[in-house]
From TrEMBL:
SUPFAM superfamilies attached to this UniProt entry: P-loop containing nucleoside triphosphate hydrolases
One MF annotation (Gene Ontology) recorded for this entry: DNA-directed DNA polymerase activity
Keyword Nucleotidyltransferase in record: yes
Location of the DNA polymerase III delta subunit C-terminal domain: 215-326
Keyword list, A-Z: DNA replication, DNA-directed DNA polymerase, Nucleotidyltransferase, Transferase
Broad enzyme group: transferase
Transmembrane segments: none
The species this protein was found in: Desulfatibacillum aliphaticivorans
Enzyme Commission numbers on file: 2.7.7.7
Reaction it catalyzes: DNA(n) + a 2'-deoxyribonucleoside 5'-triphosphate = DNA(n+1) + diphosphate
NCBIfam families according to UniProt: holB
Domain of life (superkingdom): Bacteria
GO biological process, one term: DNA-templated DNA replication
Name recorded for this polypeptide: DNA polymerase III subunit delta'
């Protein structure tokens, strides 16, 4: 299934600037992974260099889209076009040597395309030195080169880089699309429903959550939450220590915790709205043991922890506070 087809606002904007031939020398596509940013960037590069006539009914940008079948389009799709350059991180970051190599290529004119397009995937992973090196090219744009930076948020980039780019924001995908995509992958419908609802509109994230590893993490968290109610403060501190070890996974863990508590709250009033449908038996049994007002206090504890992490409060302290409140019921 094709997630980028749901990005009507972003695609409409790109179609408009292509129609007016009013393309900025640098664009930044922002949004979570799995929203179609890279696919749109590749098709944008194709549209800038297409040698054929697009079919408005099938082309990504309508009448301004690439034909997809000419020699240029086929080369770009296969990653073999000499004037469409891909820059991706090596190891943990995009290094200054990569940008220097890029700049040496940009010093020459395009070899066969109408416009050289540089796609920088994971632009937020550029080091400070590589960002500053790229800045020189952005400050002195060539009329034959267009940059497309892909990032999660503008805040991942240096402000001086952002100021020289036109942002195009990609929106979260519909939950219905995520559910259908997961079911087409062979995921159980009840599990697909749960993963799609907490994936923040990202197909990549939904698939990761539905993987064996993602499912194991969810099930482990649910078991830990049940143990908190039965074992008390000691278990709370052990869980907090574990959750604090991986700050990158904290938001996903908090999403699962919030979803679990929400399910316990709504199951007695509207069971059809339970998200973790594959755990319905356990949801019903645990819900009967906890008063609604206690569940509301626990949900508030999760919200407070998320707010602490947003404000860069110490992760260990935030998790300890959360788990103690979950253990005590508020």
């Amino acid at each position: 299934m094709d997630p980028v087809r749901h990005q009507k606002r972003a695609l409409g904007f790109l179609s408009g600037i292509l129609a007016k031939n009013n393309v900025a020398h640098a664009l930044v596509f922002t949004g979570d992974a799995g929203l179609g940013k890279r696919q749109a960037a590749v098709h944008f590069a194709m549209a800038r260099n297409c040698e054929g006539t697009p079919d408005p009914e099938s082309a990504m940008f309508g009448s301004q889209g690439p034909c997809g079948v000419c020699g240029s389009c086929r080369k770009i799709l296969s990653g073999n076009h000499p004037d469409v350059l891909f820059v991706e991180k090596r190891g943990a970051s995009i290094k200054i040597e990569q940008i220097r190599d890029l700049l040496s290529v940009l010093a020459m004119r395009p070899s066969e395309g109408k416009t050289r397009v540089v796609l920088i995937s994971g632009a937020g992973d550029m080091t400070a030195s590589s960002s500053n090196a790229l800045l020189k090219a952005l400050e002195e744009p060539s009329d034959t080169t267009c940059f497309v930076l892909l990032a999660g948020q503008k805040s991942e980039l240096l402000p001086t880089v952002v100021s020289r780019c036109q942002e195009i924001r990609f929106s979260p995908l519909p939950v219905s699309f995520l559910i259908e995509s997961l079911e087409n992958d062979g995921v159980d419908p009840d599990l697909a429903h749960a993963c799609a609802f907490i994936a923040s509109g990202s197909l990549d994230k939904a698939r990761a959550l539905a993987s064996d590893q993602g499912l194991a993490r969810r099930n482990w968290l649910v078991n830990q939450l049940c143990a908190l109610e039965d074992q008390g403060m000691g278990q709370a501190l052990l869980l907090a220590e574990f959750l604090a070890k991986d700050k990158n996974a904290a938001q996903e863990d908090l999403n699962w915790i919030r979803t679990w508590l929400r399910d316990l709250l709504v199951s007695r009033y509207a069971p059809q709205r339970v998200i973790n449908r594959d755990l319905m038996g356990l949801v019903n049994s645990r819900s009967a043991k906890t008063a609604p007002e206690v569940l509301l206090e626990k949900l508030q504890a999760v919200a407070d922890c998320e707010n602490d992490l947003t404000r860069n409060v110490n992760t260990r302290l935030s998790m300890e506070n959360l788990c103690m409140r979950l253990s005590s019921g508020g």
